[in-house]
Design goal:
By secondary structure, this protein is mainly alpha-helical. It has two domains: about 55-95 and about 105-170 and about 260-330, no CATH class; about 170-255. Helix content is about 75%, strand content about 0%.
């Protein structure tokens, strides 16, 4: 009577994994074993393609961003206008001659922009508000991907269709999103370490500062290495019948041999996002300050908090569209005959 090997299934999984992944620990991988095709448009050309796709369906995506922005207002709230006004007054009173040059007002607007974009105007959210924020973000992502998938398939759809149908894989997407957050922990540790090192004066010394930056760079590289495939997994998991860890495995196989090139695309995506925020927010901050300086009766209007809210919703739509369309390009490249 034959006895079943309890480790046979595990051994089979390991063999399949090693067959799919050419890299071996502490062993030089031959170039022929890991090189893979990745024929994509240039960064600017692909950005234009993403923008053109969104602009062609601008009414649909504008309604999507507006819907989730309104949902955020009712379930989470917006940044505090009082906090923003206090920050402006404090900056004006304490800056002294620091911003006295011709570009002084632009410098102040830049500091206000950085503070606002990094959440400096947001009040402390309760646990339930944080949960709502996560759910709204995931639903915006799912709806954007669902709409794009059907638009590229040639289907005529309405926003209502996306809102009603896109949320079915929310549990699987939530699990992948949790993995994504765990993968960001090394960067979070680097940020915490930087804060502690700044307070203790560690960065003022030579060798200690160099060692810190080396460790911080390694931690950041580790997170970037992980999330490159997980961003694709957030798209793959929306496929019908897809399980979260299968999506992670599929995404990992998809980026093998071209992870760095795909990572550079995501870095470009974040650069464009920050650039758009800066181009939009800094002039608006200057205009808001100028108008309210002339007419103090409207100083209570939460112009900047509202713009932050809308711009945040648009950013989620933009990033999800960029990642999805990049995923489609990579899949199309794989489908082409060698």
């Amino acid at each position: 009577m034959k006895t079943k090997n309890p480790f046979k299934n595990i051994q089979k999984r390991v063999k399949l994994f090693l067959k799919r992944r050419p890299h071996r620990t502490l062993k030089l991988t031959r170039h022929r074993d890991y090189t893979r095709s990745l024929k994509l448009p240039g960064n600017i050309a692909f950005t234009k393609y993403v923008s053109k796709t969104i602009w062609k369906n601008r009414k649909l995506f504008a309604m999507l961003a507006l819907f989730y922005a309104i949902l955020t207002v009712f379930m989470v709230g917006i940044a505090s206008q009082d906090t923003y006004k206090t920050l402006v007054d404090t900056l004006n009173n304490t800056s002294g001659n620091l911003f006295s040059s011709g570009f002084g007002e632009i410098g102040k607007a830049g500091l206000l922009f950085v503070t606002a974009a990094t959440g400096g105007l947001s009040q402390n959210l309760t646990d339930i508000q944080q949960v709502y924020t996560g759910i709204i973000t995931i639903l915006t992502w799912l709806t954007s991907v669902w709409l794009l998938r059907n638009i590229l398939a040639g289907h005529k759809i309405k926003l209502r269709d996306g809102l009603y149908n896109a949320g079915s894989p929310i549990v699987a997407t939530f699990i992948v999103a949790l993995v994504f957050l765990v993968q960001l922990l090394p960067i979070a540790l680097a940020i915490i370490g930087y804060t502690a090192a700044s307070l203790t004066g560690l960065l003022d010394s030579g060798i200690e500062a160099m060692l810190f930056w080396v460790v911080a760079a390694l931690l950041a590289t580790l997170s970037m290495y992980w999330i490159t495939s997980t961003l694709f997994a957030l798209v793959i998991v929306t496929l019908p019948g897809m399980y979260p860890f299968k999506a992670l495995k599929t995404a990992g196989d998809l980026v093998v041999g071209r992870r760095f090139r795909i990572l550079l695309r995501f870095v470009w995506m974040m650069f464009i996002t920050v650039l758009i925020w800066a181009i939009t927010m800094i002039p608006l901050i200057l205009l808001d300050k100028w108008i309210k300086g002339l007419w103090s009766a409207i100083s209570w209007l939460p112009t900047i908090p509202v713009v932050l809210l809308v711009l945040g919703a648009i950013t989620i739509v933009w990033i999800s569209s960029y990642v999805y369309l990049l995923y489609r390009k990579v899949i199309a490249d794989d489908a082409e005959p060698a």
